[in-house]
Specification:
This protein has two domains: 60 residues, Arc Repressor Mutant, subunit A (Orthogonal Bundle); 129 residues. It has 225 residues and is mainly alpha-helical. The protein is built from twelve helices and no strands.
């Protein structure tokens, strides 16, 4: 038998394990369907492995544990968050509106992933859920990116900056709320809804604030005893 040289060994080690990567993706696709339909608590690695066509020990070989499988699935789902939210760009009002529409259009083509997100998000409200801290940190990151975009809208004197944190949270809440309505009713047109909302954001950012605007949101007569 020919002896394997060190050069051959190095070449074999550096060759990508295509079969292993394909197996991981098949398992993740099966986990997406199970977690999205039954939640994390209601799913078993045995059932996911069976759908993926491997053994339960084979699944654990790839991901280590059920929690490891969940984290791998979430990382796959959110690996493009920075890109989708245009993290490295300075957006004007029109570009921010376009970004919101782009997110909705992309999500409409990924119903399974959106369903997975909303089911796991609801479960993860519990502090005992393995994805609780993951979603906490994801929202912190998403709000930070959105707040940066909102602050950039203040260049026309619309005085948005003092409320940028709240508005960033509202933007995320609108996206999540539209997705939830769409999952409950596939006929719901969340694209039209986000366009209406985006137009409101553009209009608010484009309207200069009056110099005689009172500090209080209510007129003096409404605050008088």
């Amino acid at each position: 038998m020919a002896r394997e040289t060190s050069k051959t060994k190095h070449r074999n080690r550096s060759k990508p394990n295509v079969r292993g990567e394909l197996s991981r993706e098949v398992i993740l696709d099966a986990a997406e369907r199970h977690f999205g339909e039954f939640g994390y608590r209601g799913s078993s690695t045995a059932a996911i492995a069976a759908e993926a066509g491997i053994s339960d020990p084979g699944l654990l070989h790839h991901f280590g544990s059920k929690d490891g499988l969940l984290m791998a699935l979430l990382n796959r789902r959110y690996s493009r968050d920075g890109e989708k939210l245009r993290a490295g760009l300075r957006l004007d009002a029109g570009q921010l509106a376009d970004m919101l529409e782009d997110i909705v259009v992309e999500n409409q083509a990924q119903r399974g992933e959106v369903k997975l997100t909303m089911v796991l998000l609801a479960e993860a409200i519990s502090t005992h859920h393995p994805a609780h801290e993951y979603f906490q940190m994801r929202y912190v990151l998403a709000r930070t990116i959105m707040e940066r975009h909102v602050r950039n809208l203040d260049r026309n004197g619309a005085e948005i900056a003092p409320r940028s944190s709240a508005l960033a949270s509202v933007l995320l809440a609108v996206l999540d709320g539209l997705q939830l309505q769409w999952l409950l009713d596939p006929q719901f047109d969340m694209h039209s809804a986000i366009k209406v909302f985006a137009d409101l954001v553009v209009a608010a950012a484009s309207a200069p604030v009056s110099e005689d605007r009172p500090d209080s949101p209510l007129p003096d007569s409404a605050t008088s005893p």
